[in-house]
Amino acid sequence: MATPIHHRDELGKLVRQLRVEQGLLQIDLAGLAGTGNRFIVDLVRGKPTLQPQKGLDVLDLLGLEVVVRRKGGNRHGE
């Protein structure tokens, strides 16, 4: 699954969707990620001042990875 994310709200919706698909409550995800429940709530709502590493840790727990690439492929059209 490749899901382009252009705004923090889109990331929040994706986290919520995957959490629900995996049958996790927000408090469950917070415990697994070693964060407070408030962080998960703020992540899902797209709060702009979140700590990036905590967000990456949550994505990792949900089975996702972040890949940064140029829009439209690279210079060689790949």
UniProtKB/TrEMBL annotation:
InterPro entries: Lambda_DNA-bd_dom_sf. GO terms for molecular function: DNA binding. It comes from the Bacteria. This is Transcriptional regulator, y4mF family. It comes from Halomonas korlensis.
